[in-house]
Amino acid sequence: MDDVLARLGEVLEARKGAEAGSSYVASLYAKGEDAILKKIGEEATETVMAAKDGDPERLVHEIADLWFHTLVLLAHRGLGPEVVAAELERRFGLSGLTEKANRDS
Ligand SMILES: N=c1c2ncn([C@@H]3O[C@H](COP(=O)(O)OP(=O)(O)OP(=O)(O)O)[C@@H](O)[C@H]3O)c2ncn1[C@@H]1O[C@H](COP(=O)(O)O)[C@@H](O)[C@H]1O
């Protein structure tokens, strides 16, 4: 899983050098950050609607769209998926320590 996110992050970084209109991501960068934020808002709404709808395939599709557009935002800000992975890992480590402390007390 880390690998596909890392490879996608590299493609998103490389698209910064692409001509506007040459690809979906290049076009989104050219429209500016507000356009990326708008897509994130739309995909978040579509995720909620898919969850209410109850179709698991549609839910996975919409969450993939949501993750994808958040990765585009990160890349636009000069960041890669590894920064979010590191933050989640840090939290997981903290919660692991808390659980261990509770067990040991
Ligand atoms: N993973 C994705 C990906 N997920 C979703 N999307 C696009 O995100 C958009 C989702 O928007 P919507 O659901 O609103 O669908 P839509 O109505 O077609 O989109 P809009 O016209 O409203 O923008 C669609 O156009 C999808 O094609 C993606 N576009 C690209 N990628 C990956 O990003 C890489 C770079 O993409 P390109 O720059 O297009 O080569 C590719 O190799 C892919 O791996």
From TrEMBL:
Cite the entry's keywords alphabetically: Amino-acid biosynthesis, ATP-binding, Cytoplasm, Histidine biosynthesis, Hydrolase, Nucleotide-binding
Catalytic reactions of this protein: 1-(5-phospho-beta-D-ribosyl)-ATP + H2O = 1-(5-phospho-beta-D-ribosyl)-5'-AMP + diphosphate + H(+)
Its UniProt pathway annotation is: Amino-acid biosynthesis; L-histidine biosynthesis; L-histidine from 5-phospho-alpha-D-ribose 1-diphosphate: step 2/9
Which species does the entry assign this protein to?
Thiocapsa imhoffii
- Set out the biological process GO terms recorded for this chain's protein: L-histidine biosynthetic process
SUPFAM superfamilies xrefs: all-alpha NTP pyrophosphatases (SSF101386)
* Coarse class of the protein's main subcellular location: cytoplasm
Q: Which family does it belong to?
A: Belongs to the PRA-PH family.
Name of the protein this chain belongs to: Phosphoribosyl-ATP pyrophosphatase
Q: Which HAMAP family match?
A: HisE (MF_01020)
The record's InterPro entries line, in alphabetical order, gives: HisE, PRib-ATP_PPHydrolase-like
GO CC terms, sorted? cytoplasm
Q: What is its EC number?
A: 3.6.1.31
Any idea which GO molecular function terms this record carries? ATP binding; phosphoribosyl-ATP diphosphatase activity
Where found in the cell?
Cytoplasm
